[in-house]
Design goal:
globular; 8 strands; 168 residues; Aminopeptidase; single chain; 21% helix; 32% strand
């Protein structure tokens, strides 16, 4: 399944389509850079992604999809998500800092919901990073609780959400 959405850049009035496609092993280094370079993980949150790696094995094992921004160089990955089917969980969702505020995250969530529906899932949980909590509220996730800190990897509590996937 491919979704395309014309997007406007914050700095350019020219619309550029965003395409979502299945992630491939060749995307692993780009996805790792998106995770490690995320502005949401600066300062006290940096330790959570330091050394984090999205490897080809991870991409093969899960339903990982990338958002590609069309440009004169053939497109670049500006976001991605990973849907785990059992138990149903949105494991990763990242949008490049420079692409935030353009609807890329919303597009990725809509695509994830479509994939979840096609897989017969009724609910998908997500443990949110604290700075992403408002985003999950805005895209329709329902707060279900709190994931307690798990030091040393994650020394802070995190909000737990759930997407309810209605059948069509």
């Amino acid at each position: 399944m491919r979704n395309t959405l014309p997007m406007r850049s914050r700095t350019s009035p020219i619309s550029q389509p965003i395409t979502i496609r299945r992630a491939a092993a060749r995307d692993a280094k780009r996805l790792t850079r998106l995770v490690r370079g995320s502005g949401a993980y600066e300062g006290k949150y940096a330790a959570a992604v330091a050394g984090y790696r999205v490897g080809p094995d991870y991409i093969e094992a899960h339903r990982a999809f990338v958002a590609v921004d069309a440009d004169e160089h053939g497109g670049r990955v500006i976001g991605f998500y990973s849907l785990v089917l059992a138990p149903p969980e949105l494991d990763l969702l990242f949008v490049a800092d420079e692409a935030q505020g353009r609807g890329v995250g919303r597009l990725l969530v809509a695509h994830m919901q479509s994939e979840a529906r096609a897989a017969g899932l009724e609910r998908v949980k997500v443990v949110s990073h604290l700075p992403a909590e408002d985003f999950y509220h805005r895209v329709g996730a329902v707060r279900t609780g709190t994931a307690l800190a798990n030091p040393p990897a994650v020394p802070w509590d995190r909000p737990k959400f759930e997407f309810r996937i209605p059948s069509e």
